[in-house]
Design brief:
70 residues; alpha+beta; 4-stranded antiparallel sheet; 30% helix
Amino acid sequence: MDELTQELRAAKWAKSSRSGSNGGNCVEVAKLPGGRRGVRDSKNVAGPALVCTGSAWNAFTRTLKDGDLV
């Protein structure tokens, strides 16, 4: 098993507090070593995960908060 797979398995995943209001269509996010973030489908926790840098995650969440994604 490679290092990234181990990190993803050991990660503490968090679901949005708003996850109950959308019919169960949710993502979970985990903080990973080096400031990276993991993102996965909460209905398929054994499935694939996206991994991005901390700066990419911050830019993404800032864009969401600003309402720039429609």
